[in-house]
Every structure is written in structure tokens, then in C-alpha cells.
Batch of 2 targets.
Target 1
Amino acid sequence: MELSQRKEKILAAVVEHYIKTGEPVGSKTLLSALDINVSSATIRNEMAELVALGFLEQPHTSAGRIPTNEGYRYYVDHLMGVRPLDESVKRQIEAGVSIKNASPEAILAKASEFLADMTDCAAVSTTPSGENATIKRVEFVPVGTRTGMIVLLTSTGVIKSKVCRSDVDLNSSMIEKFYNIVKSSFLGMPLDEIDTATLQTLVASMGMDALTMIPFVSAVSDLAQEAMKTMVMLGGQSNILRYRDDYGTTAYELMDFLRRGEPISRLLANSKEDFDVKIGGENKFKQLENSSVIMAHYNIDGDNRGSIGIIGPTRIDYASLIPSVRYLTDLVGELLTQTLNDD
Amino acid sequence: MELSQRKEKILAAVVEHYIKTGEPVGSKTLLSALDINVSSATIRNEMAELVALGFLEQPHTSAGRIPTNEGYRYYVDHLMGVRPLDESVKRQIEAGVSIKNASPEAILAKASEFLADMTDCAAVSTTPSGENATIKRVEFVPVGTRTGMIVLLTSTGVIKSKVCRSDVDLNSSMIEKFYNIVKSSFLGMPLDEIDTATLQTLVASMGMDALTMIPFVSAVSDLAQEAMKTMVMLGGQSNILRYRDDYGTTAYELMDFLRRGEPISRLLANSKEDFDVKIGGENKFKQLENSSVIMAHYNIDGDNRGSIGIIGPTRIDYASLIPSVRYLTDLVGELLTQTLNDD
DNA sequence: GTTAGCACTCGACTTCAAAGAGTGCTAACG
DNA sequence: CGTTAGCACTCTTTGAAGTCGAGTGCTAAC
């Protein structure tokens, strides 16, 4: 749907004014904000049409207009100026994500916290999906006479460890056998190929040793499962209170939604583009019906992607936050790639 | 300060009624809740004295009474019935913390979440302090030609790992040297004795090898520092919205306070008893002036302690939540001790 | 010491009116 | 035909005034 240039100007002004103040915008206010040579009556006419088209709405008859979700959508898609990020903001973001010698989890956790502080929104990020990751290394660290810690390292730099308990006392030949199994069956293996079926054939092939090795092998498998799961890092939940009125009654639901990692990772993984904005009900989660999500995805070595995003009210400042989220996400992606390939 | 038996009855009734309803309690309401054979006028007289003594207050002249912090304190110290926990509640808690083969962090994180859900409050827990912990094991896992991962395991079961980068290509003699250093200087060493001074003398004693070993040694030291830090696990921040009115304007401050782990660990570490209740301004944190904290401490092998607690409004249900927090904390302590000694 | 009775206080809720913001419509204008 | 001035209309907000009711504090009597 195409709008006349004047309608676009008016829509943009309404959106921007409403984002700034949170108050419905009237025709006179618009008149002074707009450098158009028409009267308020004309603007009223235009606005009435924008209401009919579904881009604006009135809270009540005698109030100004506020954008509908469709209004925000049109604004984001067509009207929003994509001014490049200010150099000083770039510096700030660079400083915010810089952290050295850190694990991917720590990097993303810090990025979430920083992004939340910067945007006054709740921020989320997910670790790279383990779908295309392989097992890079498995180590066994004896801890007690019958227990040891198994450490698994994936090609995506994720480290998982788990204490595992043997039914009999450990001895060096057992450990040697374990490393042989690791070498022949686990190293280089894609995480998602380690399922119960492969595990069973593996155990079957071990013959006599099966019984003693089962705890170790299944621990490795557990760790692989765990490493595949994307983790969700949260930041700035307290910022939800900042826009409490905008969320209305969904504030509690929203906070509760953020607690549970799983739906968030689905939310973030849902979008196929490098970058995505979901406005209000556009995402199918009821808890987010009064919220907008701005998210971007990073890639590590091509195809392992994770996401970073912010969740705010629908009247979030799209124009200035979108570039920030994108820039930060790109930076984090680079940082992660670099950490990973830094051998 | 001693109160007459009748005053105690009245104070207890006011506290309990206010906790339940959140409404100021009047003399007539009290009359029906209390099985005392006096008139409402007598109760009024008693209440007036309780106000004078500082245990009750009136929001305004013509309203009922609500407890002051001192009132809650007297209630908790002298009046609250310490009924033993219901068997079904015990079962529920046992089910809530049960989790197998998990790290201390995972156990505590789960306990926090569960406690938050059960009590409708925000819940926090801290990992055991590393003060009396020693280094149990250090492993080096090569990752690339110049990088490797160092894994440190403490006597308290904490596992920390870190990628570390050498200035020259790794070879087996370097790794051997590293393990020798670990064996002679790190194993069994208390974490808090690894400071820059000891590190310097250690490096000095290495002579020729100092340069190549420095990255590894300092990584171990970093990990030791990290392992000493108590971590804070949070649960149920969203529950703050549940009692939003009670927190008044401090709701945001409270959430923000919860974000930062450091003050929380100070708060929890501050109390010397096995168990502690801080009511309103009793804890010196301004952000908590409208909140009460119920916390308990667990011990692992005698002296390594951590804490678990809940943070709610001052009109939190002390009588039923205190036993729950204690029971859960004891359980978690046992679980951690067991996990640790399960060699 | 306890109680009944009563005047009094003060917030909560309702009603009403006035103010103000903003609209939609109509008629006139270029 | 698009634009505009003018105006009646609608609906929220604000504040004042009034009522209600819960609850108190005090006094006088038991």
C-alpha cells in the first residue's frame, strides 16, 4: 500500500511524536512539528483517512491519534530515516562489548547487560546454535576414586563439563579405553548425530567393556545434548518497570515470559533475515502483544547463528535503536568468530 | 520489652490479618478474629498503647492499624508460632530441589527458581564461599597450536575454565613443565593464598621458563580468583510485580538491586546466625527499605557456607515461609555436601 | 479495668460543573 | 476539487462539594 507523500509525512510525525511523549498527537501539535503549509483542518482530514486505512487510531473520540501496529510497521519499513550511527555511539558500543579471554557465554551475557543499559529495554541474546557444531575435544579429569569430570569442547567454543560416576574403581586402563572410544567415535562428530540409536550401536560394539564404559559414554552424550541447546542470556528485566504503563497488564506476563528461556530462543530463531523487527502482535506470543522486539543475528564461520535483541514497548524508538542493535550484534559476531579462530 | 499477654494476642492478630489482606485492621475486625471476651473499646485502648509503644501505626486518623517494622520484629521474635512444616510441603520441597549429577551452580539455580515459585517472592542464593577452598586439580586441554584451556577444580566442587594463549607454539615439554609447577605450587593450595606476591616469587623461581609459563600460571591465578568469588543465583524477579503496591516507589530500585550480584552477596553474608530475618530498614540497603529478607545458610563440611533467601514485602508471611526457607536450605546443604563427597 | 455511647476525623466514592483538547462537519473560497 | 475557517459536539480531566462509612478517641458509667 502506497501513501501520498503528505500522508507519509504526517504518519511519520505522529509516530515520532508519540514515541517521544507517549501522548496522543493532535492536529495542532502536528502543525507546528511539520513544515507543511496547510491548516490543521487539512491535517485532520488526512489523519481521518489514515485512521480509515488502519495506520492510526484514537483512544477516544476527542483525543489525538496514536499509531496502530500497522502504522509502526509502515513507519519502520518506509519512513524511518536510516541515519548512520553516530561515531560516539559506536565508540560506546565498542567499549561496551569489549571483554577479553572470555567464553562465548560471558561475551553474550555482557552484551545483553550493556544493551539493556544502553537502550533502557530488556535485552536478550542466545548462544550460537549447536546444530552444525562438532565435538572438538573430550577430556576426562579424575576427581575421586570412582568419580571423574568429563569436559567436552565443541567446534563452536562451547565448554560443558559434568561429573560422572563409575560403578567400579577407576584405573588407568579404563581411562585409556575411554579415550580410545572418544577418538574413534566422538571426535569430529556432529553434535546432532549423537542420539540414542548411535549410542546403542556404539555400546554394542564395545563388548566386554560396555558395562564399565556406559557411565562415561552416556555422560559424553548428555554433554553433547547440553552443548546443542542454545542458552539465553537476559539483561535489564528491571527496565520493564520503566515502561510499565505501556505494557499495561501484560507487564507481569512479560517478565514471566523472559524467565523461561525456551520461548525466547524460539522467538529469536524464528526469523530468517539477518535482522528483524516484530511489532506488537506480529510475534505470535500473547505475552508480547504490547511489546516490540528488535533483533539481529550474528554468524560465526558462516552458518552458526545466534541472536541478540531487545524487547520494549511498541512505542520503542525504532529509528535510533535499530542501528544500535545491528551494530552491536555485528561486533559480537566478529568477537565470537575471532575468539573461536584464535588458535 | 515485655508485653502483656493480651497485647501480644492483639499484636499477633493485627500482624496476621494485615499480612493476609494488606488492609489496615480495625478494632471490630479484631474482635471477631480474636477469641477474647472484651469489647472493641478495650481493644482500641490496647491498640492505642501499642501505637505509643511503636509496634503499630495508623496510616491516617480514621483508619485501622498496621504493624510497624518493630511490630513485625516482635511478632517474629516472640509471637509467631513455629508450627512444624506440613509433611506434604516437605515432600514438595524435596521434589523441588532434587536434581541429579548437577554442579553446585545448577543445584542452587534450580533451588532459587523453585523457592521463588513456591513463595511468590524473589529468591536468591549464593554459591559456597571459596574462602576455605583449596585447589584440588588443574588440567590443561590443548585446543589449538598456541591455545589451550585450563580447567581448575576446587575442593568445594567448583569448576572454572578459561582459554589461555601462549606466545609460542605449544609442545609436550612445556605442558610437562606446567604440570610440574601445578603439582609443586598449586595443588592443595588455599585459594586465598594465591595473590600477586606468591605469584611473583613463583615466577621468579622458574628461571628460564618464566617467560613461556607466565600465561599459564596467571590463568590459573585468574581462575582461582574467580572460584573464590561467590556467585549469586536469582529467581522470580517477576514476583516483585506481584506485590508492587507494597514496594511503592522502590519496586524499580529493588529490581535493579537484584541485578547486581555483589550487594546481594554482602547482604546475605552479613548475618552470622544460621538463619536470619531482616525486616524493612533493618538491612542497611536503601533499596530494601520496604522489603523483608528471610535467609538461611547452609554449610558444607563444617565451614564453607553459602546462603539462600527470599525477598518480599515487609508484610510477607513470616510464619509459614521461614520454616520453608530453612528446610529447603538444609536440604540443599545436604545435597551439596553429598555431591561433593560422592567419590 | 472495662464498656457503652457518641462526637469527630478522614479517606473513598459519587455527583456535578467547568475547562480543555481535539474532532467532524459544513459552507465558503480560490 | 482540494483547502480552509468556523463551529458545534464529544469525551476526558480536574476540582469542588457532598455523602458515606469505617474507625477512632474520649467521657461517663459500671
Note: The longest strand of chain A covers residues 291-300.
Target 2
Amino acid sequence: MYTIKEVADKMDISEHTLRFWAKSGFFPFVKRNENNIRIFSENDLEWVKIVKCLRAVGTENKAIKRYIDLCILGDSTIKERYGIIQNTKKKALEQMEELKQQLALLDYKENFYQNLIKNNLKDTWNPMNNIREEAAV
Amino acid sequence: MYTIKEVADKMDISEHTLRFWAKSGFFPFVKRNENNIRIFSENDLEWVKIVKCLRAVGTENKAIKRYIDLCILGDSTIKERYGIIQNTKKKALEQMEELKQQLALLDYKENFYQNLIKNNLKDTWNPMNNIREEAAV
DNA sequence: TTACATCTTTAGAGCAACTCTCAAATTTTA
DNA sequence: TAAAATTTGAGAGTTGCTCTAAAGATGTAA
């Protein structure tokens, strides 16, 4: 059993964000103690994990709420939930590709600056000149 | 030479976002024609590309502005720019790792639902029961 | 060459998702 | 027992778009 701070530390999510998510209806299953304090069970952590996952892939909060609601509705919603997971996975793979592209550009830039520094060269590509003697990939 | 709409199409960024970025000072080098309309050169597109890259990796707009300003300041800022690129790359690699983790969870979930559907099983893990007979990874 | 659609501009409103501050009520620790 | 830390909800503030509006420019077609 965990307080919100413990969850925050364990899951690397700020307390503020956890409370915001709670207010957004992402954790309808989390119980409170007699003083109204949220107590997360081990099982609840798994739900925090899936919410974090959906957010990390850019799922809108409205859609996350929908997924939670479907879970609560029970077995009749399994196919819709499956579809959501499939779409989310597809989006994650696309983001992976995008990130790879950007990493390639960053690699190029890193090399470019490394070369300038090592050989004590001037940056021949000042944007204000609109002269391009050296281009980014 | 491209109008803002052409850049938007070519780079897959909305016109709104490009104008917002322009207002944020990300494109001080983009020229206007006699009717005040922005005309992006081929070279300018490379700058849009690097801005898009920095954004994609979650760089704050203030930090992007800083990078642009350093470029304009010239050769004395090459080392600082190199540092920025290195940090950005590091962040990108971390995000890559994070995405991989989330993909593993999504894979697990996909399998879980696939199994439920194929074998016509019930979802034994309803959060409202706080019973965990089947857990996410 | 007039009419209409499309595109451009800026200013500013609206929005999503936090992020932070506050004050009051517990807990925990020293 | 007192000080420090943590919890709560309400609500203000921030970031980075996203959209709307109004006015002007441009392109196409009859």
C-alpha cells in the first residue's frame, strides 16, 4: 500500500500529475483511508503504469478516460480495448521511427560541430547570410 | 522558394505552428516579399528541420530560441551549440529507451487481449474488484 | 475583367495538460 | 510536544499550440 508520494517516487511521475490524473478520472479504483488519503494498492500501480504508458505515447486524456471506462464496463468491451491497444502500439512504432530520423540529424550535427572544433574551423553556414556552403542532412 | 503553406506541406508541420514558431523568433532569417509574405529559401528549410527536430525531442521553445540566437552570434558560440546538440541527443536516446519500455507493455497487453478474444475468456482483472488474477507486466 | 476561391497576414481567443501555490488538516520525526 | 513533512482540493499560472476573425493578396475561370 502506497501514499501518493510513494507512487510518485516509484513511478517517476510528479504528485501534481498524479492528482491531476486522479481528478481526470483515471484512478476510480483507488481507495481512501478514513482521513480521505489515497492509498494505492500494488494492483493500482499496474493501472498507473498503463496510464503512464498511454500518456507517453501521446494518447489524449479524454481517450485514456475512455479506456479506463471500458475496463470498468467489463467483458463486453474487450474488443474495443484490444483495438485501442493496437492503435496505441502503431502510434508508438511511428514515434520510434520519427525519433530515429531525428537522431540521425542530431548525429550529423554532432559530427559537424565536432569537426569545426577539432580543426578550428569557422561555421560557414550562418543563417543570416542566407549562404549555404555546408548543409544539414 | 516556398510560401508558408508549401513549407507546411513539405515538412508536415501545420501553418499555424510555423507562424507560431516564426512569432517565437525561430526564423529570423526568413525574408518577406514586397507584400510582407514570408518566402522560405531551400536553406531556410534546413532551419525548419532542425527546429522540428529539437521540438520533437521535447526541447523547450525558450531553449530553441537560445540555439537560434547562438547560431546568429557566430563562431564564438560553436562550443555551446555543440553542447546543446549533445544534450539533445542524450535526451533523444533516453526517449528511445522509454518508448521501448512502453512498447513492451503494449505488446504484453496486446497478447493478453488477443488471448481473451481467441479463447473467449473473461477479463479476470477488473480494477473495480481490486482483485488481481492477471497482471500487466 | 469581374467574380470567386484560395492564400497570406496579425491579433487575439481558446484549449490541453500540466505545474505550481495556497490553506487547512493530518502524520511523522526529533 | 513541537517542528517538519505530507495530504487534501481549489484555483491560478504556464507552455505550446490550435483556431477564429478580419483585412488584404493572388490565382483561375467565364
Note: The longest strand of chain A covers residues 31-32.
